[in-house]
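Hi U.,

Before I forget, here's the chain from the pilot set. I'm dumping it here mostly so it's searchable later in email.
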Amino acid sequence: MKKILTLAVALVMVFALAAPALAAGWDNPVTPDEFEDLYLNITPLSVEESTIVWYGGTYNKLDKTYPVVAGMKVHAFVEVKVPAYDDLSKDIQDRLAAGQGKLKISTSNLEDVTAQWKYSTETSYTHTALISGNKTSGTLAISKKSCDKTIYVEIWGTAEKSDKDAKITATLGVYNEWDASETQFDFFSNGTKYTISKNATDADYTVYKTSDRTAGVRFYTKSSGQVENIYVVLDSQVYAIHDYMGGNPSFVPVGGTRPITGDDLRDVKAVLDDICGAMGFEYAGDAYITDPLVEKNLGTIVEGSASLVYPSGYVQEIVTNDPGVNPPQTGDSASIAGFVMIAVALVAAAAVTVKKVRA
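Structure:
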């Protein structure tokens, strides 16, 4: 027992000492904002038509979802009010102008899914379906012309499996994306636009303020994406970074031998700190940069979502080989209450068993 305790303490100390070395890359990613003044609501509807007219349809609005098993239909209505263009920040306006706003409808454990959409001012669904065929999700592009408008989406589907919940999620977001050539990625930080370029000059990734290409950071990576060299560019002069793994780097001009000092050191390090700070990227340590990591950590500017969950209605049959546990038959002296107590005991025993297994 003492040996096990000693080993456990030793492991805790090892991981505690290793923690600073592991804190690198996107350990502290940029946190996306939430839409302000966004109205996003999703409502369950009946699957049987009614004489009550609701939002131009003929289906009742339900107070809550209901349990489903395979083959049961679900019906839902999404209402999204896109904020006015002038109420949005500069970075969101820029992305909407580039057509990088999206309304996503996604489902799980549903098949035969359809989703039609229209603006609230329209009387019928005349646009191309958001979801049809064998698809279970779909995306509607949100641009500047969608601002200050309300979008309606009507969704139908059929539960696929009995032992799983069915779910419908609506998400409105604005995203940064790689361009069509997949070589350039723009993002904003504190109102300033930055660009990540792939394979610019001889670097794998070069990051700079979009308005100023004379200053930036070049990342050289292995095939795995692990950063192996970092260079800083300032006024067309390139500086190699030394000893950056410890978080206290020095900078040597390419072609030179001595680290810079004084104002030069301050200015060059300021470029590194500004770029990495905008990315939410920690360069000291075992850091990685890949296309998926860029999208994961810098892709979402702002987002809001809402979901409906239809719980599984599947009830698993309790099977036992114990002849002493059987429902009472007609004429048995055992009372119904006694059988119920036995059933409760079985459930309690099962709960304890699960708890022990998972402990």
